[in-house]
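Aminoacyl-tRNA hydrolase
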Amino acid sequence: MLKITDDITLADWEIELSQIRAQGAGGQNVNKVSSAVHLRFDIPHSSLPAEVKQRLLALSDQRISKDGVVVIKAQSFRTLEQNREDALLRLQQLIQEVLKPRKPRRPTRPTRSSQRKRVDEKTQKGRIKALRGKVPL
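Predicted structure tokens:
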């Protein structure tokens, strides 16, 4: 069972963990031992609240497929147990990031001096471009 917050927990059946071989250089053990972990979490079929599901599906994260399945590959540690803990922690952090309330954006107006600077720069650019024309004889 994975605890996200005090109210939200994920059951073990919702998270699919599978062992795979780690990629890259690693010495004698890397090609023989399956120490990396693939974590798969199906968002639409999970027990998360509907609002959390919508926020997760709306994320533009490359770990979330079009079908709404989160795929996390953990291979930074040498042991399977550490990689399993790392994958679960990363899933927990992903869901907790979605739960944080977003600050409302307050639109601001440009200051008078910034407006004046912008107009001055435009007129200066116009003068420079006007000088680029052919020189009359």
